[in-house]
Amino acid sequence: MLTNAQIRAKARESLAGKWKPAVIHFLLYMIVMMIISSVTNKIHYIGWAIGILLEAPLAYGLYNHYLDFARSQVPEPRGIFRGFERYKETLILYVAIIVFTLLWTLLFVIPGIIAAFRYSQSYYILRDNPGLTPMEAINRSKAMMAGYKWKLFMLYLSFIGWALLCILTLGIGFLWLGPYYSTAAGHFYEQLRGQQGQGGSAY
C-alpha cells in the first residue's frame, strides 16, 4: 500500500486541472449544509431529526463525489445529492454509524474514535456494491479496516497543518482543503481495496 504522502500526492494529481469543479461542488455542499443547519436550529423540538434525515444522503454523496475525482472522473454538481437516489439505504447506514459510534463512546472516547475509523469505508462499499444492505457494508468496512485504522488516522492527522493555514484565511481555504482531503480519503479506499485484491464492485 502507498504511504500517506504518496496518497496525498495521488489526490493532488487527481485534482490537477479539476480544482475549479472540485471547489465549486464543495462550496455547493457547504451552502446546503449551512441552510440545513440554519433551518433545523430554528425548529427546537424536531430540528435534530430533520437534520439527520437530510444529512444522511448528503454524507453518502460527499464521500462518493470525491471518490469519482479519485477515479479520474469529473462528476456533475448534482452528484453531491446522489444519496437521495438511495435514500433508505443511506439513512439506515448514517443512523447505524452514529448509534454504534455513540455506544462505543459511552465506554470511553478512544473506543468511539476507533469505531469511527472502523466504519469509515462503509459509504464507499455501499456505493460499489448496490446489492449490499447497510449493515453488510458496515461489516465489510470493519473487516477491510482491520490493521489499517492507525494508518487512516495518520492520513487525517497529516492535514492539520493545512487546516490551521485555512483558519488564517478566515475559512476560505477550506474550500480547497475539503476536496483535497476528501479525494485523498477516496484514494485511501482505492488503495485498501486493491491491497485486499478486490476489483470493481466485487467488494
Question: What does this entry look like structurally?
Answer:
- This protein is an all-alpha fold and 203 residues long.
- The radius of gyration is 17 Å and the shape is globular.
- It has helices spanning 4-15, 19-42, 47-70, 87-107, 109-118, 122-128, 134-144, 149-157, 160-168, 174-195.
- The chain contains 10 helices and no strands.
- Helix 3 (47-70) packs across helix 10 (174-195), helix 4 crosses helix 7 (134-144) and helix 6 (122-128) crosses helix 7 (134-144).
- Helix content is 73%, strand content 0%.
- The protein has one domain.
Number of strands: 0
Number of helices: 10
Structural class: mainly alpha
Number of domains: 1
Q: Rg from C-alpha positions?
A: 17 Å
How many strands, what sense, and barrel or not for the largest sheet?
none
Uncertain regions: pLDDT < 50 for 5+ in a row? 199-203
Shape: globular
Mean pLDDT: 93
**Into which percentage range does the β-strand content fall?**
under 5%
**Helix and strand run:** HHHHHHHHHH
Helix fraction by DSSP (H/I, runs of at least 4):
over 70%
Distance between the termini: 17 Å
